[in-house]
């Protein structure tokens, strides 16, 4: 119920406006988002690269409502790729298909993905399509397949272990040779498409991880769960996989202690660095994953002190 309510809140423009004007909210936002500008994102990426992490940068935004917004989002990513290459950052990009107009014009979205993939390839960078709710899962997987059919093999996507369909999607994209970011899933999905209990989601995650360690060239495991991290390490060691043949991915501002430990132990770590002004949906989903921060956030939104 809590996740469902927060998912609804993530798409509420009135709450987004209220959060943006509350001075009490900003400290929490700064924990999960590198800042409002490209310079902020690059600054955070540079600091993380200096301690041995690679990066995937996200210019936050989703569900654009017109073609101009989709073109503007693509332009922001073009600027990001150019600056990242200039500064020689070990960074790719993560982008939500609905931010590129998936729900407005699928051919236009495909063209924007193709353009970004070509620009990323020039910098030897990877493009990950973030996975959104289940209504666009098939369309997102097809975007990856279309990109590979057109020769853009640096395009992959995230897959969510919470969804019942994910085992087949894992096999489907592994056969294609596409990069897969395996995550649990941050959306409140109905029972007919997704596992509802944490133990079921975790079990599905570990089963998919085992398959990827056996079959995929370079799997990407997005989790902050130390139990799953330990299980993946054990499985990789049993299979004889080198530590540089797969990577863990974690979010900016989450489990910094575990991030440092992984890098220190010689594992590959990629940090997901979001920046931009459209941060409200992203932060609310992080709160759904970390309820301890929720009470503070709600108090900040409802405080009478808006000075």
Describe the structure.
The chain has helices at 2-10, 13-21, 26-32, 38-50, 67-86, 106-122, 137-149, 166-176, 198-215, 226-239, 256-264, 280-289, 294-302, and strands spanning 54-59, 91-95, 127-129, 155-160, 180-183, 220-222, 247-251, 268-275. With 307 residues, the chain is α/β, with parallel strands linked by helices. It has a single domain, classed as TIM Barrel (Alpha-Beta Barrel). The model has no long low-confidence stretch (mean pLDDT 90).
Can you lay out the helices and strands and say which pair or pack?
Elements: H1 2-10, H2 13-21, H3 26-32, H4 38-50, E1 54-59, H5 67-86, E2 91-95, H6 106-122, E3 127-129, H7 137-149, E4 155-160, H8 166-176, E5 180-183, H9 198-215, E6 220-222, H10 226-239, E7 247-251, H11 256-264, E8 268-275, H12 280-289, H13 294-302
Parallel strand pairs: 1-2, 1-8, 2-3, 3-4, 4-5, 5-6, 6-7, 7-8
Helix pairs in contact: 1-12, 5-6, 8-9, 9-10
């Amino acid at each position: 119920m809590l996740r469902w309510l927060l998912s609804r809140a993530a798409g509420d423009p009135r709450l987004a406006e209220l959060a943006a004007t509350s001075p009490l909210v900003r400290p929490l936002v700064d924990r999960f988002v590198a800042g409002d500008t490209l310079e902020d994102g690059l600054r955070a990426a540079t600091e993380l690269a200096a301690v041995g992490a690679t990066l995937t940068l996200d210019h936050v935004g989703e569900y654009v409502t017109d073609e101009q917004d989709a073109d503007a989002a693509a332009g922001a990513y073009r600027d990001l790729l150019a600056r990242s290459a200039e500064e020689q950052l070990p960074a790719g990009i993560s982008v939500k298909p609905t931010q590129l107009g998936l729900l407005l014009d699928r051919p236009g979205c495909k063209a924007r993905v193709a353009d970004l993939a070509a620009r990323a390839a020039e910098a030897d960078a990877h493009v990950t399509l973030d996975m959104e709710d289940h209504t666009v899962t098939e369309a997102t997987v097809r975007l990856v397949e279309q990109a590979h059919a057109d020769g853009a093999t640096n395009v992959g996507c995230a897959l969510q272990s919470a969804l019942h369909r994910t085992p087949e999607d894992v096999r489907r994209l592994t056969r294609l040779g596409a990069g897969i970011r395996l995550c649990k899933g941050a959306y409140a999905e109905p029972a007919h498409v997704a596992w509802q209990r944490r133990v079921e989601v975790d079990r599905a995650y570990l089963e998919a991880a085992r398959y990827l360690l056996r079959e995929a060239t370079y799997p990407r495991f997005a989790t902050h769960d130390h139990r799953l991290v330990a299980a993946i390490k054990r499985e990789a060691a049993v299979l004889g996989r080198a530590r540089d043949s797969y990577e863990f991915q974690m979010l900016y501002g989450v489990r910094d202690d575990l991030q440092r430990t992984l890098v220190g132990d010689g594992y590959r770590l990629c940090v997901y660095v979001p920046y931009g002004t459209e941060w409200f949906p992203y932060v609310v989903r992080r709160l759904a994953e970390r309820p301890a921060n929720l009470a503070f956030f709600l108090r900040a939104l409802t405080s009478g002190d808006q000075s």
